[in-house]
Write a structure and sequence with these properties.
Layout lengths: L9 H8 L6 E4 L6 H8 L5 E6 L2 H10 L7 E5 L5 H7 L5 E7 L4 H5 L25 H7 L2 H12 L4 H14 L5 H11 L2 H5 L7 H12 L5 H11 E11 L2 H16 L18 E3 L9 H6 L7 E7 L1
Parallel strand pairs: 1-2, 1-4, 2-3, 4-5
Antiparallel strand pairs: 5-7, 6-7
Length: 311
């Protein structure tokens, strides 16, 4: 299957990076290479490091970037390891970093990857197929308390308690092995009246929560931002696109902390911490998809783009 991924807010991301033709840039989530290729097109003597933990994504990028030899470096890693990736390449500073968080269109649309509640497949949801931990492990080994916690916190699902209890009851009969089996359990847990009020599939929030847990998606954001700020040249840009309110909150908080400067208590007459602002926030409010893009790609609906510049 060809690796396809629709890069959301492509022009806004590229404009936000403010690309210099001789600069060094990092695409932390290469995916199908949409953002990466647009960066490569604008480089002359510059370089781009594209990172992904998915072998299928890297293979797709390798083919797509053949005409950019000498400019492109592909690295298999999780973007939380950005500091190590750059150190291993002997690169101290870069001019821009982009992160497109969450699951890719290809991963969602490949049934055997087990991300979708619309197709029957083994419970998987691993962004890195070599990881030993999958959705099967979450669904069949987590306690009812922990299932409720992740479904409530990561999926923002108000019926988390009922869903967790139903999962535990069902797996006592036999392990829950497939995506449709899980989706049907979730559907049967939600009151009919409540389900009818929503346009989306009743399993969407719970599948999202399990996917986030499997891939530790929220845990990797802050380390990646810290590494990006550390390695950015003055005037370099960091561009981050999120698709979930929890992701956006983490990015917003990290940007604000780096833009704050002094952390002394307000009643201190003078600053004693010596902390200076490291970032200037370019987007006071996140950029969202245009009406045209919303009509063309429904997955852009939840996207929020934040941009900051190294001081």
């Amino acid at each position: 299957m060809e690796f396809s991924h629709y890069p959301v807010m492509l022009s806004e991301c590229i404009e936000g990076l403010d690309i210099k033709s001789e600069g060094i840039y990092v695409d932390c989530t290469a995916g199908g290479g949409g953002h990466s290729e647009e960066i490569l097109k604008r480089l002359t003597s510059g370089k781009l490091i594209s990172i992904d933990q998915d072998d299928e994504a890297l293979e797709a990028c390798k083919k797509r970037f053949e005409k950019y030899k000498g400019k492109s470096i592909l690295v298999k890693s999780n973007f939380s390891e950005l500091d190590s990736v750059l150190n291993n390449l002997d690169i101290d500073h870069v001019d821009g970093v982009i992160m497109d968080l969450g699951v890719s269109s290809h991963q969602l649309d490949t049934p055997e990857r087990g991300f979708s509640y619309n197709s029957d497949a083994e419970l998987d949801m691993r962004m890195n197929p070599l990881s030993p931990f999958s959705a099967y492990d979450v669904v069949n080994s987590y306690s009812e308390f922990d299932l409720k916690r992740i479904i409530r916190d990561y999926g923002e699902e108000k019926f988390a308690s009922i869903i967790a209890r139903k999962i535990v009851n069902e797996r006592e009969r036999s392990p829950i092995k497939s995506t449709l089996e899980l989706a049907n359990i979730i559907r049967s847990s939600i009151p009919v009246a409540a389900a009818k009020k929503e346009a989306q599939h009743p399993a969407k929030r719970t599948f999202q929560a399990i996917r986030i847990e499997v891939n530790h998606e929220l845990d990797v954001i802050e380390p990646a931002i810290h590494a990006a700020v550390k390695h950015l040249n003055d005037g370099g840009r960091i561009v981050i696109m999120t698709f979930h309110s929890l992701e956006d909150r983490l990015v917003k908080t990290a940007f604000n902390q780096y833009a704050q400067g002094c952390t002394c208590p307000k009643d201190f007459p003078v600053c004693v911490c010596g902390n200076k602002p490291k970032l200037k926030i370019i987007t006071k409010k996140p950029i969202t998809a245009s009406e045209k893009e919303l009509n063309e790609n429904s997955r852009s609906k939840c996207a929020k783009l934040r941009i900051a510049e190294k001081l």
